[in-house]
Amino acid sequence: xxxxxxxxxxxxxxxxxxxxSTKLADFPEVTGREAQWVYTPVAKLQELLNGPLQPAKPSVxxxxxxxxxxxxxxxxxKRIGSVYKPEDRAAAQAxxxxxxxxxxxxxxxxxxxxxxxxxxxxTEASGGHIFVDVKxxxxxxxxxxxxxxxxxxxxxxxRVGEGARVTFVSLGEFSDxxxxxxxxxxxxxxxxxxxxxxxxxxxxxxxVNPSVQLAHQGGDVEMYGLYxxxxxxxxxxxxxxxxxxxxxxxxxxxxxxxxxxxxxxVWIGDVLIGPNAVGTDSYExxxxxxxxxxxxADSVPNxxxxxxxxxxxxxxxxxxxxDEEHLFYLMARGIxxxxxxxxxxxxxxxxxxxxxxxxxxxxxxxxxxDVELERSDAAIVAGMGR
Length: 386
Prior knowledge:
The structure is a single chain. This protein has 386 residues and is α/β, with parallel strands linked by helices. The longest helix is centred in the last third of the chain and has 26 residues, at 359-384. It is built from 6 helices and 19 strands. The strands form 2 sheets. Strands 1, 3, 4, 6, 8, 10, 12, 14, 16 and 18 form a 10-stranded mixed sheet that branches. The protein has a 9-stranded mixed sheet with strand order 2-5-7-9-11-13-15-17-19, with helices on one face.
């Protein structure tokens, strides 16, 4: 008797074995039972998962900054696909439909920053691509802000050249009905440093999956995330760090708050330390603060170690409600309950905001957090019958 197809099937044993391909046919239709989609409301994503998509043609607004240039390049540019191949069906859809990619080039050893605003995606399902090319020894801060309506799948490649130090911030300012599925993939060069920050507080369904490959000795990455989910909102982040080369360092720190029925956040953190990654220093953590009744926070840290000679590795995950001792301490000093709650939430999330080394952007995020906290206050007052 021959061996059946089911008997031949061997499940993926490690995160690095996941399919990576530019061919849509290599990704079967998503059912929601797959490991990478099990927490995601796939029924709301059918247009982006199964298409057809339109090429994304956003409006791009920037200021002139010496050492940072933006332009559009054709999909046959040799840089496209050199850092990354899609790892899920939505990313493959986006990769195959875009006509021109937004290119962001950072060069020069002086410190500089640029804010790039992307808008006018419209309500049609679309796919886009961005390539961030950081030249060797360059310094810079790039902030990418998405705004308005969107039903968007996009992919972002980030190449950080040898000895460079760069911060990349992705900030969502979408309309309430927007849907965004995005994969970021970075390759960090020898002795280079990347700080990668994701901030999401808007949209209906937002799923951002950042990944970093540390394939060059001395590479260093810090990955931060901040999110605040309201009733009916789904915010998801799947982080993937692959240590390949010796003496590399990674830090992952994502924090989120949730309020109201139907608010749902997902964080999955995968770290793989390969057999040649001697001297690796790695740590990842996710912490969630639940406000009121009804929110759901899923948090799954995963750490795989295939090397016996590392400096250190660890992970942590925690989800909880307000620390009543903190509230009591503040209220005992004359601070009313609502103000005390706001101070606790601000203190909890401020660790991530402080990582954004752009005063205007950091202040804007604080203002948006205040709006979220006002909604939380209103819900508390309503619940108290005041």
